[in-house]
Design a protein that fits this description.
alpha+beta; 5-stranded mixed β-sheet; globular; two-stranded antiparallel sheet; single chain; 8 helices
């Protein structure tokens, strides 16, 4: 199985309607967090915003999974944090697909690996002679990074926007990704619905460009 086949398998099992909902989830979650944080001072909002956005995204993913016939059991990551594990299984047999969400420091950046992510990755895909070998499951990550902006003012005014949204399939040693998909570039018509109306086409193109891996 190559990267394209791994991607196709994942999209077939989870379904493209769910993938599109997953892309929307960080935009809707961060917008909700921005509105809810208006009740706080700037200092308090800086503390609350990221956790509110993370929690809201987990709820949105669970709702989308239920809508599209997938499982989304709540799981304990350790400490106080709970997360949702999106699960789909092909009707014809084959490895199940498991998706979890994570926030990273830059477009398609590496995650700070938690125990549950390491366990899932070890059960997932590895490489053998250049080919990707699915394991007991196919494990994918929905990665979101913050918007850096084209200026300090832009970054401040539009901090509620995600800077990138990727689907990435980690290697089973969690040291890299065997395949990645930039969902911002894949579905620009969805992303445009969340961008400021006053943005010019040039600003939109710069936003999409900044979403690319290794843009920073």
């Amino acid at each position: 199985m190559n990267g394209t086949e791994l991607e196709r398998y994942t999209f077939d099992v989870l379904g493209e309607p769910f993938i599109k909902a997953a892309l929307r989830s960080p935009y809707d979650a961060r917008r909700e967090a921005r509105e809810e944080c208006k009740r706080f001072s700037a200092a308090e909002a800086a503390n609350v915003f990221p956790n509110w956005a993370r929690g809201a995204q987990q709820a949105l993913l669970a709702s989308a999974a239920e809508m599209h016939g997938l499982e989304a059991p709540p799981m304990k990551a350790g400490g106080f944090w709970n997360y949702r594990e999106i699960r789909g299984a092909p009707a014809t047999g084959g490895p199940a697909v498991i998706l979890t969400a994570a926030t990273v420091g830059k477009p398609c950046g590496f995650i700070r690996v938690a125990d549950y992510q390491r366990t899932l990755a070890e059960s997932g895909q590895g490489r053998l002679f250049g080919e990707i070998q699915p394991g007991d499951c196919v494990y994918a990550l929905l990665l979101t990074s913050r918007y850096r902006g084209v200026s300090l003012e832009d970054a401040r005014d539009n901090r509620h926007l995600p800077g990138s949204v990727y689907m990435a399939w980690p290697s089973n040693d969690c040291l890299g990704y065997v395949h990645v998909v930039n969902l911002v570039e894949r579905y620009p018509e969805i992303v445009r619905q969340y961008l400021p109306e006053l943005w010019t086409e040039r600003h939109v193109m710069m936003y999409i460009q900044q979403s690319r891996r290794m843009a920073f």
